[in-house]
Amino acid sequence: MPVTVRPAAPEDAALILSFIRDLAEYEKLLHEVEATQAHIEAALFGDAPKAFCDIAQIDG
After folding, report:
1. Measured CA distances, 12 to 1, 30, 37, 49, 54 (Å)
2. pLDDT tens, residue by residue, 1-18
3. Within a 10 A sphere around the Cβ of 47, how many other Cβ atoms?
4. Which structural domain, as residue segments, surrounds residue 50?
5. Domain count along the chain
């Protein structure tokens, strides 16, 4: 099962937010999540990114 790792793109912001929310829910901390899709877009893809993200996807 080949896997590709690529830099996240702006169109991945909703997916990234869902990962954050899923992890927070698992940790029983969902009530602490204040991020929105706009926050993710600004932090990762704005003029001065504050963080970077890679996405792993299964090929095929």
Report:
1. 22, 20, 10, 15, 10
2. 899 999 999 999 999 999
3. 5
4. 3-58
5. 1
